[in-house]
Amino acid sequence: MTVVSPLHALASRRSMKFLRAPAPKQEELDQILQAAMSAPDHGKLRPWRFVLIRGEAIGRLADLALDAVKRSGDPRMTPEKEKSVRQWMSEVPLFIGLAHKIDHDNPKVPEQEQLLATGAAVMNILNGVHALGYGAFWSTGMGTYLEEVQNALGLDALDYRFLGFLAIGTPGCAVPTVERPDFREFVTEWTGPV
C-alpha cells in the first residue's frame, strides 16, 4: 500500500468539472463539512453557509438558474450553452451552494476577513473531497451573481454574499496530473523598508 503524505495530497488536488455518481456517502459528507469548521476565523463569526442540492432538486436548480440567466439578458446563454450546462448538471450528483454571511454589526472583523474565512472553509471542503477520493469543481456560473438565484436558495442578498456552487462527485475520467508553477515565482523576502 502506498502512503501519501498530507502535503502530497494537498499538492495533487485539482478541480474536476466532469463528475458523476456516486457522491460522497452521508457520513463522508459529514466529515467533509466538519473539516470546513476548522477554517481560520477571526472573531469566531463562522460566516460560511452551505446549501446542499441533490437528487431532484438539481433539476429545479437548473431550471431556476438558467432561466434567471436568460432573463438577465446574458448573451453567453445560447441554446447550445444551455443544453450543455443542463447536461453537465444532470450528471453531477451533489451541488453545494456557497455563501458568506455578513456580520454588519462587528466593527472588529472587517467584511473582507469574513469573506476570507469563508474561502478558507470552502478550501477545506475541496481538500476533504479530494482526500476521500472524490472530485469537485467550484463554479461561479449558473446565476451566481443574480439576486434571484441567491434569494431562491434562502440567502437574502442584504445579509449574504453568494459565492457560487461546488459540484461534487466521482471523477468522470482519469484525473490527469497538472503541472504547478514554482512557488518561488510568487514569493519575496522582506528584510526592511525599501
Automatic annotation (TrEMBL):
EC number(s) per entry: 1.-.-.-
Tell me if Transferase is a UniProt keyword of this record. Answer: no
The annotation note on the cofactor reads: Binds 1 FMN per subunit.
Broadest EC class?
oxidoreductase
Q: Which UniProt keywords apply?
A: Flavoprotein, FMN, NAD, NADP, Oxidoreductase
Q: Which residues does the annotation say bind FMN?
A: R13, R14, S15, H42, W138, S139, T140
Q: Which Gene3D superfamilies match?
A: NADH Oxidase (3.40.109.10)
Looking at the record, the residues that make up the Nitroreductase domain are: 11-169
List required co-factors: FMN
> What InterPro entries does UniProt report for this protein, alphabetically?
NAD(P)H_nitroreductase, Nitroreductase, Nitroreductase-like, YdjA-like
Q: Note whether NAD occurs among the keywords.
A: yes
* Xref: SUPFAM superfamilies: FMN-dependent nitroreductase-like
Q: Which GO terms label this protein's molecular function in UniProt? A: oxidoreductase activity
Check the record and name the PANTHER family matching this protein. NAD(P)H NITROREDUCTASE YDJA-RELATED
Q: Which family does it belong to?
A: Belongs to the nitroreductase family.
Output this protein's name. Putative NAD(P)H nitroreductase
